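worker-03 picked up job from queue 'complexes'. Input manifest follows; two sequence lines, order preserved.
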Amino acid sequence: MNNSEPKIVAFCCNWCSYAGADLAGTSRMQYPANLRIIRVMCSGRVNPVFVLKALRVGADGVLVLGCHPGDCHYLTGNYRTRRRLSITMKFMEYMGIEPERIQVSWCSASEGSRFAEVVTEVTADLKRISPNRLFND
Amino acid sequence: MEDEKRIGVYICHCGLNIAGTVDVEELAQYAAALPNVVVSRDYRYLCSDPGQDLLKNDIKELGLNRVVVASCSPRMHEHTFRKACQAAGLNPYLYEHANIREHCSWVHADKEQATQKAKDLLRAAVQRVHYHEPLEVREVPVNPNTLVVGAGIAGIEAALKIANGGHKVYLVEKEASIGGHMIQLDTTFPTLDCSECIMTPKMSEVGHHPNIELLAYSEVEEVSGSVGNFKVKVRKKARYVDEDKCIGCGICEQKCPWKVPSEFEVGLGKRGAVYIPFAQAIPNIATIDKDHCVYIQSEGKKCGACIKFCDAGAIDFEQRDQIVELEAGAIILATGYDVFDPSQIPQYGYRKYDNVITALEFERMTCASGPTSGTIRLKDGKTPRSAAIIHCVGSRDKNYCEYCSRICCMYALKHAHHLKEKTNADVYGLYIDMRCTGDGYEEFYKRVSEEGVIFIKGKVANVTDRAITEEEKGKLVVIAEDTLLGKMMRIPVDMVILCPAMIPRSDATDVARKFSITQKATGFFLERHAKLEPQATAVDGIFIAGCCQFPKDIPDSVSHGRAAAAAALELIDKGSVTTEAAISCVDETLCHGCGICEEICEFQAPRVVLKDGKRVSTVNEALCKGCGVCAVACPSGAMSIKHFTRDEIATMIEALTAVENG
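worker-03 finished. Artifact:
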């Protein structure tokens, strides 16, 4: 456990996970303040390069949240994300970067409590590993 | 070349909703020092008229060409501020929104942390707005037809309102007749109106309405397009009966030698393999149930009685499912609910004991047109001398459905009244809480109490036929704790009526996916806003009505159906919708015409074409929905998505991860 506060960038899709995050707010659910959300229309917009960029410029972890598989507003965008990021995660692991730094999860517009839980878990995961210095070279 | 960026930043206090946790003044000072910020203000309620005037005036007087508001969720007020920008002559896409309420002040109690987070979010928004380009929305005409899916009371009301307003409605119903659950009911609480008597005129009106095209025994297969212009494929299932020739005389059903339990009578009565579901069915056309028809099952070798006896020559075994293609500007889903199967709770003895029945079965039993002609009787034909009505079977139960099904208390009271009225039996109502919240409902509870029904506050543990006293012999014993007396009760009765939960349709997930709408954790369809837009979904142009959203009684379903109709009419009468401006675009100088975008797009928006001898992709703006999947897939970086460009996202990433220097 390290004492620093991890910086986490999240990508949330407009239709499910961003709305889920809104519901967590409306319901006043508390979660750690380490996360900063970037809204995209679909998780399928999240280029793995964005994820790598976030880690390169100083994020300790990146969370990508989409609609549950099968529920994508654009039918299959989240499947694309899942495939693209699972490859990215393997590649990261191969490079010796902790897999916890990239996390992909699903959250519907009605799952405010799930959103808060995921953020809490991801923050705890990232607190367990040391701050991201891998891209400092 | 555009002039220098002149950014105005506005921070909303939202009363104390934001200002209670985020130091808004510090935030405003912080924003004022960011590059190109010309003005930075905080205000109590930016969404108010004076709040909007602040930014409108600044756009005009200070020559702002970019605006950032930090307030609630953009899903709430982005539209408001975009409109304010537009009113002041600024392109609405030169606006950016930072969510410092739902994503910040409401979820973090620590002021310092919340203020720091708000600064980060605001900085990201200010950096991003530099990259915004003015975008133009296009107006496209709205198809004036509406598709209504589901013809229970909510769907029927919606269809009639729109049709009476002079617009065409396609009404799709998956069952052989319209009417839904309401036509199965005997009476309606609390007035005890005959349900059929108030429902059949509506059904008949639907059947004869010149503006309603009824597609019964049909299901939606596929939906494409978007608000104003949906394209829908409907499967019209084969009835094996010629709809134009059948006169609904019912001779075929009388002569059909194969009888199966009737769905309409909830298994209490039988119907033929060829059948008309009930006397007042609309359309009044026979349907052959191919799974039970011996002629079909034997491939024409056996039976054929219906062919012989149908004078109209309407039986047509050559009929096949048809795919009907429709176009509609708006869609209303009124797909209703299913009834929880109480045999999932084995201790209540449903399907184990003959005289444990569901409320819907009881409904058919008390109905004069039902299989017992309205006589309440036990399986052996005798009249019950005592009965227990068990509330909350599956509802308000952590193991099944946590929610309250809302209507069960009231119909349980109605059943108690009919039991008293018709049999003078001893009636026990076993409830957790009595919820009688509608107009005249509490009064009805009082009336039924005065009729001598005994109410016991307690959740039933068990229904058994194991007698331990002489009195219990041959009876069903309902075991429950009377929580008001603090004592276990054993109540011997002849009949037990279960009030099962109302649950989402078994195919709700398929339907939600077909229409790209969302379900709640319960499985019911999610509305756009629980308070203010209960009839809308996240998808523009698709509305919901009735119990597919959540359990409702008849007046609520009627109101909801009409609300959905009003929303559809609003769209039709407006006549046009604006299309999404934040869509894909191709940099033709970079495009190699590989066609990956074409393959990956679910909506067939990009197409590779030959332009001046070069293969390049072009985007059909009417089809693109702006998801951005193609922009990620494009190997040459030619495909981009407006308003969510890589520069815009990259600058936000940088802003959110930057080492804080102040």
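worker-03 released lock.
Residues 395 and 501 of chain B are 5 Å apart (CA to CA).
Chain B has five domains: 7-135, 146-234+323-336+509-574, 251-309, 338-503, 584-642.
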